[in-house]
């Protein structure tokens, strides 16, 4: 394909900058401990300084891939698919999720919510960032709110975000990995004093799996 044609295909969501795809155990949030196939899409301008996949930010580093190939690979491994990034909502997720749905798969997304929602989702995990706040639609539709705690001020941010999501969203506080020794005890105390919240840990890192 010509470069111009590839660009048009990416803009339409029929090709996506694929960083990696892998079958593993969900390590965070509500579905911790369950098997899932992860599709990591490149491209993100939210710019969290503590991001542990900064190599995902530049979409140009990741090959535009036909969504048919992504769907076929995903269907071989699991009934639950997690779309993550980067920021997957940078792109139109409609074609990819339609293809996955045709295979009878459950589709989850992990998103900062910084862009309008596209695609069809069985589970939306919203992980908002201060640098680029979510759009209202994602607050309204999220099943799960996961706030990363890097410092004490993030507890204030977490409450601000909890006030914006729908009443049925399940609330999680998760220590940023490099600050886990410092922040985890604070999170435990906070959840015990504010039991609407739950603790989320990056258990896949403790298990040494992707």
Automatic annotation (TrEMBL):
Which InterPro entries does the record associate with it? Answer: 7-CO-7-deazaguanine_synth-like (IPR024924), Aldolase_TIM (IPR013785), rSAM (IPR007197), rSAM_sf (IPR058240)
Could you tell me what reaction this enzyme catalyses?
A: 6-carboxy-5,6,7,8-tetrahydropterin + H(+) = 7-carboxy-7-carbaguanine + NH4(+)
Biological process according to GO: tRNA queuosine(34) biosynthetic process
Pathway involvement of the protein, from the record:
Purine metabolism; 7-cyano-7-deazaguanine biosynthesis
User: Which keywords has UniProt assigned to this entry?
Assistant: 4Fe-4S, Iron, Iron-sulfur, Lyase, Magnesium, Metal-binding, Queuosine biosynthesis, S-adenosyl-L-methionine
Q: How is the cofactor bound?
A: Binds 1 S-adenosyl-L-methionine per subunit.
Citing just one GO molecular function, the answer is: magnesium ion binding
- Domain of life here? Bacteria
Q: TM spans, by residue? A: none
Chain residues that bind S-adenosyl-L-methionine = 50-52, 86, 127-129
Could you tell me the EC number(s) of this protein?
Answer: 4.3.99.3
Domain spans labelled Radical SAM core: 31-210
**Mind telling me which Pfam families this protein's record contains?**
Radical_SAM
Q: Which cofactor does it need?
A: Mg(2+); S-adenosyl-L-methionine; [4Fe-4S] cluster
Q: Does the keyword Ribosomal protein apply?
A: no
Q: Where does substrate bind?
A: 25-27, 40, 84, 210
Ligand binding ([4Fe-4S] cluster) = 44, 48, 51
PROSITE patterns named in the record: RADICAL_SAM
Name the family the entry cites: Belongs to the radical SAM superfamily. 7-carboxy-7-deazaguanine synthase family.
Q: What does this protein do?
A: Catalyzes the complex heterocyclic radical-mediated conversion of 6-carboxy-5,6,7,8-tetrahydropterin (CPH4) to 7-carboxy-7-deazaguanine (CDG), a step common to the biosynthetic pathways of all 7-deazapurine-containing compounds.
| Record note on quaternary structure | Homodimer.
Q: What is this protein called?
A: 7-carboxy-7-deazaguanine synthase
Biological source species: Flavobacterium beibuense F44-8
